[in-house]
Amino acid sequence: MLAARPRTLPAAVAPVLVGTAMAIADRQFALLPAAAALMVALLLQIGVNLANDYFDYIKGIDTQDRLGPPRVTQSGLIPAQQVKTGILVVIVLSTIPGLYLASAGGWPVILIGLFCFAAALAYSGGPFPLASHGLGDLFVFIFFGLVAVCGTYYVQALQLTPMVLLMGALQGLLITAILVVNNLRDIQTDRRSGKRTLAVMIGERGSRIEYLLLLAIAYAIPFILWLGGVSSAWVILPLLSLPLAIYLTRLIWISTGGPVLNEVLASTAKLVLIYSCLLSIGLILSFK
């Protein structure tokens, strides 16, 4: 359970909720593809977490100086070889619902699935780990935002719309904010180990500005859709979560230690899930 990092799993659930809400709004909802998409998303998220745990230990990035929750490989709770086996098991398990999705969605789903598998391993592993070269934020935006939302919608509707793409981008903004907090917390240890995350490149102030901008744009988009007459006022339902977003933004600006940022990290994941639930309800009611 510790290796799976349950607090990060809202990042897998939220985009599937939004993609399914769009399918419901467009009268394209299909239960089995939606459920299979959720299973794949959860398993790939766990796979990414295990791979990050394993490769960061192997590369000497995770040390006893890290400020975040214990990592099972670095702390010796699970031997590295068993974590490596766990990665393979989770990936194989994800192919079970993945094969069903491939049969329902055809070659586009197969292609997306292959890219997802490759990206899950390339995030922390391989000769050019994305997370160590400032590309982690872009990876999260693309795969946990655009790919997750659009993929969930596509396996149900077998088509995409501009609104679905926009919702995918919105989810990408929110979920990237989770990673920003994680990398801000680890900025010193990552810098010492040579892991060049975007946070290491732009510094603490830059990372805090990035967090603020990601949330600000995410909250502005529904408001613009409503003002532009694209949808009804129901789409601004996520504004109910704005007080939590403001609180977390203030907290991240005044925080100086790992324990506070650990709480901001967990609370940002909760914010993403709350926002996404409210957005899903708003989308269904706006476009019914």
Contiguous low-pLDDT stretches (5 residues minimum) are none
State the separation between the terminal residues, measured CA to CA: 39 Å
Main sheet specs: none
C-alpha Rg (nearest Å): 19 Å
Assembly context of the chains: single chain
Which sequence of SSEs, written as H and E, runs from N to C?
A: HHHHHHHHHH
How many DSSP H or I helices? 10
How much helix, percentage-wise, in residues?
over 70%
Count of individual domains: 1
Number of strands: 0
Q: Could you report the average pLDDT, rounded to the nearest whole number?
A: 89
Structural class: mainly alpha
Beta-strand fraction estimate: under 5%
| Form type | globular
Pick out its properties.
288 residues, 73% helix
What does this 3D model show about the protein?
It contains ten helices and no strands. The chain has 288 residues and is mainly α. It is globular, with a radius of gyration of 19 Å. The N and C termini lie far apart (39 Å). The mean pLDDT is 89.
In short:
The chain has 10 helices and no strands.
Secondary-structure blueprint of this entry?
Blueprint (H helix, E strand, L loop, with lengths): L9 H16 L5 H28 L21 H26 L1 H16 L13 H22 L4 H24 L1 H7 L4 H30 L14 H13 L3 H29 L2
Helix pairs in contact: 1-2, 1-5, 1-6, 1-10, 2-3, 2-4, 2-5, 3-4, 4-5, 5-6, 6-8, 6-10, 7-8, 8-9, 9-10
